[in-house]
Amino acid sequence: MIGKIYGTGSYVPQRVLDNDDLSKIVDTSDEWIRERTGIGKRHIAGDETTSFMAGEAALKAVEQSGIDPEQIELILVATSSSEVIFPCAACEVQKKVGAVHAVGYDLNSACTGFVLAFNTAQAYISAGIYRTVLVVGAESMSNMLDWTDRSTCILFGDGAGAVLLCAEEGTPAVMAAHSDGKKGAALTCLSRHSKEWEKSDKDSYIHMNGQEVFKFAVRKVPEIIKEVLAQTELTLDQIDYFILHQANRRIIEAVAKRLKTDISRFPMNLEEYANTSAATVPILLDEMNRKGELERGQKLMLSGFGAGLTWAACLFEW
């Protein structure tokens, strides 16, 4: 069995902060940010919460699918920035979409979160445990930023994306995932409940060693894509799209170069949304789906990478 995507949805806040706006806050410029990241603007939550955005994206996915919400059996929300510790964001989504028979829980793996949640859903479906699963990635990254830190505040935005998976007969999705906790210090954000945070409230904001994260992503993403392909009889040329976490244009271009694959098969939307962490992949999937760029039978490779350090990939048929 495989989980086929029956519906997609996304939500981004109305408030937009472009690079020129940021240049009034920190020492930067539109040219500097675009050259190093490919980002032009980001959407920033106002009154919207993480669970609210997750619910809005989920509603759109369910509506497009035509599936009765009462048929949904499992809800997974990937987030590291929920406004609620409990009830979990997944239960808030359940309430909003009316999935009264579903069980829900959250996964926290930062920027890799959605791909890991998607893999989890595929594993449940392949095992015959659930047949209809709602997977959401939602983040309010702006709440975790030090807006005086140029190295991080230019990179992130807020938003949510969702997919609704339904079981069908077919070849199961092919997956791989890894973590390296020894290198976790490259990208951190302490809880405000941590005793370590008491030493400095600055520790509750995102801290990143940009060079280390870049080198990690450029090395590990091609490796895991090849690892997934090695489990099949497919070649790189047979993959229609490589849908990567939208962290940095340079990272995506470097991955394409290492794989010796044309950059046109690596869609990007980070110019509009920046890095929305666990939401980047489902937002991109929803955009491509609603533009009619995805067709049944196409082979898609998802890959996420980020704090942990953690990285994952999934190959499946649209």
Automatic annotation (TrEMBL):
Its main location: cytoplasm. Its EC number is 2.3.1.180. Pathway: Lipid metabolism; fatty acid biosynthesis. Signal peptide: none annotated. Residues 229-318 form the Beta-ketoacyl-[acyl-carrier-protein] synthase III C-terminal domain. SUPFAM superfamilies: Thiolase-like (SSF53901). It is an enzyme of class 2 (transferase). It is found in: Cytoplasm. Residues 246-250 are annotated as: ACP-binding. Residues 105-177 form the Beta-ketoacyl-[acyl-carrier-protein] synthase III N-terminal domain. Keywords: Acyltransferase, Cytoplasm, Fatty acid biosynthesis, Fatty acid metabolism, Lipid biosynthesis, Lipid metabolism, Multifunctional enzyme, Transferase. It catalyses: malonyl-[ACP] + acetyl-CoA + H(+) = 3-oxobutanoyl-[ACP] + CO2 + CoA. It comes from the Bacteria. The active site is at residues 111, 245, 275. Homodimer. The last Arg residue of the ACP-binding site is essential for the weak association between ACP/AcpP and FabH. Belongs to the thiolase-like superfamily. FabH family. Catalyzes the condensation reaction of fatty acid synthesis by the addition to an acyl acceptor of two carbons from malonyl-ACP. Catalyzes the first condensation reaction which initiates fatty acid synthesis and may therefore play a role in governing the total rate of fatty acid production. Possesses both acetoacetyl-ACP synthase and acetyl transacylase activities. Its substrate specificity determines the biosynthesis of branched-chain and/or straight-chain of fatty acids. HAMAP family: FabH. NCBIfam families: fabH, PRK09352.1. This is Beta-ketoacyl-[acyl-carrier-protein] synthase III. It comes from Ruminococcus turbiniformis. The gene is fabH.
